C-alpha cells in the first residue's frame, strides 16, 4: 500500500534529507509520492530498500530494522496509537492479537478492492499480511513465529516489536533468529522465521533507588511480610498474578518483588485472584444452543480427519450437507486464514488466531453456484474433555451489497452478533473513505499542478531576467516604478560585422539569420563567463556594459576579456559569401551613464549619455579583428596585465581628434580561460 512507501519516503527525508530521497527514487525509478489507499507492486518497495542500502552504504538488515522502528512511530503519528495500545496488557498479548488486528482491518477496509489500508507490518496485497504465533517459555522468554509470503523482510519485525515493547510496556527486548524451519504446518506462507525474544524491564530512577536499598533493610522487611502472610495464601496469590499476566511482560520476578507487588496492589491486604464459578450441569438445551449460535460447528479428529458433530441452524441452511452428522468438514470448507492444513493438530498450533473458512463451490446447492462463496470468521476452542474443537463464527460480510450477493438477510445473523452493526456501519465508513480517497487524489493532482506551475514560473522568470536585470524585473513584477539610476563609471562595448551590408546583399535572409545566431550564441555565453550585462542587439551590432546594473570596480577588465573572447569566437563563424571566418570590429569606452527602463510595452533597460556615443564611435572608427580603446578605457586597463599598443590621434566624427589604442591580449590568461572552457 501507499502507506508503506509513504512511510519509507518520510524516513529517508527526515533522517537523510530531500536530496537523498530524490536520488534514491530516481535510481529506483519510482514516483515521488504515493496514495495511502492505493495498492502498489511489491517490487517498488523492494527496489527502494535495495537502492537505500547501496546509497547509504548500510546492510539490508540494519535498513529494515531502522524502517521497522520508524514505521511504528509513523503509525502512531498517523492516528493509530490508541488502537495499538488496546491490543494487549503485555507484550505477549500484544503479539498474540496482531493477526486479529489484521483480520479486523481486512474486514473494515477491503469492502472495495480500491478501498484498502494496511495497518501493521509488511506490505500486504489484498491484505495478505504476515502471520504471528507466540509461545511462552519457562524462563520468561518467548518464541515468536513469523510467517510471510515475502522473503527477506523478517528484519523489520525486531524493529517494530522493540519499539512497541519500549513505548507501550516500558521493557527492552532482544530478538535473535534461532530457527528457519521448513514449511510443514502452513500451506500458504513461504517464509517461517522463529525469533527468541528476551525481555528486560526498564526501571525508573525511583525504582532503581528502591532496589539499591540496603540488604539488611530488605531482609527485615521480607521477614515482617512473611509473618503477616501464611505460605499457602502467598503461593496462591503469586500464581494468580502470574496467570492473569498482571506484569507488563512475562519476565520471571524475584520472590521479594512478588510480595511487594501483592502488598502495594492490595493496599496492605492480600490480593486474591478472580476464580470463575461453573454450574454443575449446563442449563441450556441443544435446540436453544444451535438457534442461539446459528453459526457454529463442533468437530473431532477421528482418523486424522475433522468430522462434524454439531452445527448451528443458519450454517445448516446455507450448507445442507452439514445436516448429515459425521461428514468430513474439509469436504465442505477450506481454511483461508491462517493457511494451515485442515487437521486438529495444525489448528491447535494457531488456536489464538482468528480462523476464516470458505465454502467449497462444488459442494454447495445449485442455487449457490452463481453466487460468491460464503466466508465465516471466528475463533477455535479446544474442548479437552470431549476431544473436540468448537468453531464459534459469524458470516464474514463487509457491506449490504455482499449480503445481497449471497441472498442473505440481516435476520440470518443472530441479534447478539456485532456483524449486524458492522455491516451497517461499514456503509457509512466506505462513503467516508471514498471521499477521503477523492480528496487525496485531488491533493496529489494539485501538488503535481503546483510543481508544473513552479517550473513554468521559473521558465518565465528566466526569460524575463534575460530581457531585464533581475532587480529591475522584480520591481516591475511588484508593480513598482523603476527609477533611472546614475552610474559614475562603467565600460561600454560595441561590435559589428565588417562588410555586413555587402553580405546581406549577396545572401538569402535565412543564411544571415543562421550566421548571426551562431555568433550571438557564443557571445551570450561569454557574457556569463565574464559577468557583463548584454544591453541589446540591433542587426549585426552587439552592445554590452560592465559595472551596470551592479557597480563593480573591475568593469573595464571584464569588458576587455569579453572583447578578446569575441575576437576568438568570431573566427569560428563562417562568412556565407566567401566561406572564410567573419571579421568584427570592437570599440570600448569608459565613462558615466544614466540607466533606466524605457516604455511599458516590451520595456527595455537602456543606457543614456555621451559615453554610449563615444563607445559607438570607437567601434565605427575601428579596424577589422581589432579592439579599439578610448583613452579613458586605456587608463583603466594600462596597469591590469593587458598588452596594449598605441594607435595615436585620429579624427572622430562629432568629437574631433582623439588619442586611441588597440587591445592586443591578456598577459596572464590563457585562451581557454578567456573562452571559459574547462
What layout of secondary structure does this protein have?
Blueprint: H1 2-16, H2 18-28, H3 42-56, H4 60-85, H5 91-96, H6 98-109, E1 131-136, E2 142-148, H7 156-169, E3 171-179, E4 191-201, H8 205-211, H9 215-228, H10 231-244, H11 255-266, H12 286-292, E5 296-300, E6 307-311, H13 313-318, E7 333-337, H14 344-349, E8 355-359, E9 375-383, E10 388-395, H15 400-405, H16 419-467, H17 470-477, E11 485-497, H18 500-506, H19 509-530, E12 533-538, E13 541-546, H20 555-570, E14 584-598, E15 604-608, H21 610-620, E16 627-629, H22 631-637, E17 642-652, E18 656-666, H23 671-675
Parallel strand pairs: 14-16
Antiparallel strand pairs: 1-2, 2-4, 3-4, 5-6, 5-10, 7-8, 8-9, 9-10, 11-13, 11-14, 12-13, 14-15, 16-18, 17-18
Helix pairs in contact: 1-2, 1-4, 2-3, 4-7, 19-20
Radius of gyration: 43 Å
What name does CATH use for the topology of the domain at 481-675? Alpha-Beta Plaits
User: How many strands, what sense, and barrel or not for the largest sheet?
Assistant: 8 strands, mixed
Task: Count every beta strand, where a strand is a DSSP E run of 2 or more residues.
Answer: 18
Q: Counting H and I runs of at least 4 residues, what is the number of helices?
A: 23
- Give the proportion of residues in helices: 40-55%
* CATH architectural arrangement of the domain at 481-675: 2-Layer Sandwich
Overall mean pLDDT stands at 81
What share of the residues does DSSP label as strand, in percent? Answer: 15-25%
CATH first level of the domain at 481-675: which class? Answer: Alpha Beta
CATH superfamily of the domain at 481-675: Nucleotide cyclase, GGDEF domain
- Overall structural class, as computed from helix and strand content, comes to alpha+beta
Amino acid at each position: 500500500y501507499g502507506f508503506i512507501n509513504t512511510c519509507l519516503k518520510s524516513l529517508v527525508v527526515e533522517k537523510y534529507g530531500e536530496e537523498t530521497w530524490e536520488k534514491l527514487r530516481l535510481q529506483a525509478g519510482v514516483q515521488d509520492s504515493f496514495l495511502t489507499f492505493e495498492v502498489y507492486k511489491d517490487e517498488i518497495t523492494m527496489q527502494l530498500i535495495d537502492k537505500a542500502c547501496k546509497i547509504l552504504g548500510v546492510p539490508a538488515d540494519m535498513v529494515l530494522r531502522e524502517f521497522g522502528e520508524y514505521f511504528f512511530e509513523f503509525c502512531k503519528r498517523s492516528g493509530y496509537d490508541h488502537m495499538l495500545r488496546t491490543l494487549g496488557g503485555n507484550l505477549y498479548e500484544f503479539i498474540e492479537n496482531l493477526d486479529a488486528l489484521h483480520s479486523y482491518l481486512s474486514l473494515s477496509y477491503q469492502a472495495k478492492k480500491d478501498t484498502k489500508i494496511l495497518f501493521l507490518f509488511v506490505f500486504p496485497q489484498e491484505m495478505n499480511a504476515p502471520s504471528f504465533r507466540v509461545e511462552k517459555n519457562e524462563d520468561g522468554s518467548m518464541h515468536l513465529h513469523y510467517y510471510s509470503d515475502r522473503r527477506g523482510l523478517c528484519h523489520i519485525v525486531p524493529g517494530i516489536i522493540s519499539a512497541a515493547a519500549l513505548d507501550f510496556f516500558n521493557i527492552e527486548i532482544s530478538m535473535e533468529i534461532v530457527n528457519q524451519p521448513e514449511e510443514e504446518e502452513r500451506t500458504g506462507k513461504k517464509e517461517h522465521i522463529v525469533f527468541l525474544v528476551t525481555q528486560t524491564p526498564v526501571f525508573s530512577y525511583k525504582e532503581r533507588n528502591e532496589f539499591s536499598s540496603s540488604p539488611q533493610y530488605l531482609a527485615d522487611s521480607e521477614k515482617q511480610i512473611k509473618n503477616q502472610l501464611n505460605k499457602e495464601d502467598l503461593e496462591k496469590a503469586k500464581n494468580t498474578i502470574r496467570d492473569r499476566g498482571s506484569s507488563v511482560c512475562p519476565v520471571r520476578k524475584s520472590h521479594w518483588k512478588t510480595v511487594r507487588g501483592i502488598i502495594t496492589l492490595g493496599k496492605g491486604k492480600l490480593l486474591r485472584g478472580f476464580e470463575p464459578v461453573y454450574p454443575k450441569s449446563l442449563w441450556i438445551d441443544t435446540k436453544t444452543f444451535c438457534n442461539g449460535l446459528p453459526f457454529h460447528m463442533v468437530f473431532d479428529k477421528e482418523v486424522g480427519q475433522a468430522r462434524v458433530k454439531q452445527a448451528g441452524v443458519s450454517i445448516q441452511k446455507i450448507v445442507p450437507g452439514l445436516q448429515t452428522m459425521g461428514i468430513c468438514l474439509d469436504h465442505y470448507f477450506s481454511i483461508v486464514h491462517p493457511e494451515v492444513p485442515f487437521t486438529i493438530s495444525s489448528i491447535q498450533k494457531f488456536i489464538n488466531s482468528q480462523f476464516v473458512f470458505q465454502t467449497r463451490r462444488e459442494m454447495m446447492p445449485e442455487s449457490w453456484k452463481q453466487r460468491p462463496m460464503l466466508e465465516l470468521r471466528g475463533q477455535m476452542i479446544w474442548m479437552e474433555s470431549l476431544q473436540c474443537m468448537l468453531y464459534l463464527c459469524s458470516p464474514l460480510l463487509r457491506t449490504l451489497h455482499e449480503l445481497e450477493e449471497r441472498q442473505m438477510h440481516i435476520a440470518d445473523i443472530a441479534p447478539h452478533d456485532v456483524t449486524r452493526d458492522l455491516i451497517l456501519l461499514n456503509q457509512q465508513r466506505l462513503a467516508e473513505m471514498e471521499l477521503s480517497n477523492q480528496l487525496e487524489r485531488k491533493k496529489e493532482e494539485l501538488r503535481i499542478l503546483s510543481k508544473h506551475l513552479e517550473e513554468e514560473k521559473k521558465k518565465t522568470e528566466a526569460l524575463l531576467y534575460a530581457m531585464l536585470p533581475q532587480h529591475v524585473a522584480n520591481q516591475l513584477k511588484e508593480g513598482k516604478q523603476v527609477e533611472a539610476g546614475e552610474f559614475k563609471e562603467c565600460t561600454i562595448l560595441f561590435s559589428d560585422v565588417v562588410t555586413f551590408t555587402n553580405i546581406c546583399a549577396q545572401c538569402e535572409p535565412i543564411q544571415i539569420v543562421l550566421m548571426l545566431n551562431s555568433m550571438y550564441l557564443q557571445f551570450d555565453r561569454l557574457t556569463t563567463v565574464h559577468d557583463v550585462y548584454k544591453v541589446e542587439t540591433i542587426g549585426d551590432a552587439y552592445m554590452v556594459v560592465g559595472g551596470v546594473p551592479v557597480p563593480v570596480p573591475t568593469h573595464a577588465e571584464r569588458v576587455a576579456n569579453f572583447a578578446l573572447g569575441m575576437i576568438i569566437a568570431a573566427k569560428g563563424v563562417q562568412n556565407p559569401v566567401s566561406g572564410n571566418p567573419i571579421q568584427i570590429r570592437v570599440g570600448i569606452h569608459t565613462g558615466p551613464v544614466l540607466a533606466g527602463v524605457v516604455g511599458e510595452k516590451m520595456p527595455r533597460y537602456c543606457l543614456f549619455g555621451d559615453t554610449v556615443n563615444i563607445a559607438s564611435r570607437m567601434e565605427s572608427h575601428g579596424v577589422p579583428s581589432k579592439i579599439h580603446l578610448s583613452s579613458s578605457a586605456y587608463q583603466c586597463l594600462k596597469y591590469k596585465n593587458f598588452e596594449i599598443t598605441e594607435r595615436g590621434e585620429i579624427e572622430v566624427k562629432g568629437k574631433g581628434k582623439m588619442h586611441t589604442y588597440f587591445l592586443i591580449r591578456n598577459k596572464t590568461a590563457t585562451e581557454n580561460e578567456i573562452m571559459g572552457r574547462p
